[in-house]
Amino acid sequence: MTERKPPGVPFESWVDRQIQDAQARGEFERLPGVGEPLPTEVESAYDELWWVKRKMAREGLAVLPPALALRKEAEDALTAAYAAPSERMARKIIEDVNVRIRDMMFKPPPGPPLGKKPYDVEEVVTEWRRLRETRA
After folding, report:
1. Which residues lie below 8 Å from residue 127, measured CB to CB, with a gap of 6+?
2. Degrees (nearest 5) of the Cα angle 69, 75, 76?
3. What does the pLDDT profile of the chain (136 residues) look like in tens digits?
4. H or E segment and range at residue 118
5. Nearest 5°: CA angle at 89, between 86 and 95?
């Protein structure tokens, strides 16, 4: 921990002194990225959230607006329903995602529209049966 700035010493001089002392102790010698150029962004427009996007990419995170996340979840649920081991499971998967779709239809969040309507469970189950017959 550095000491407090003494009264009467200009802030810039005090900071410069702290940096010089740290350099003398060798605290800047093995920093990650030393000697490498700073990463440049290929985007021409300035993005205020560039650091958030970079941090999320580094952490392997992704955030979609709620409507787009539910749209993806609905597509995944339909795929899962077709691959379900039983008709009961296929029905449950579709019924569960339909509840979330209906909720969002009546209480839309900010952002892009959902663009989905609830699935017809009987239609999905009919397709599930057809897919099971073609595999056998």
Report:
1. 82
2. 85
3. 457 877 887 877 888 888 898 889 988 888 888 888 876 665 556 778 878 888 888 888 777 888 888 999 999 999 999 999 999 999 999 999 999 999 998 887 777 888 889 999 999 999 999 999 988 7
4. none
5. 140
Nearest to 75 by CA among 125, 129, 116, 110: 116
With beta carbons less than 8 A apart as the criterion, state whether 49 and 63 touch. no
Burial grade of 42 (CB within 10 A; 0-12, 13-18, 19 or more): exposed
User: How much is the pLDDT for 73?
Assistant: 93
Res 126: pLDDT: 93
Taking the C-alpha atoms of residue 3 and residue 18, their distance in angstroms, rounded to an integer, is 9
Burial of 12 (0-12, 13-18, 19+ CB in 10 A): exposed
Measured in whole angstroms, the distance separating CA 132 from the mean position of its chain's CA atoms is 35
Q: Secondary structure of the chain: what % helix, strand, coil (to 5)?
A: 55, 0, 45
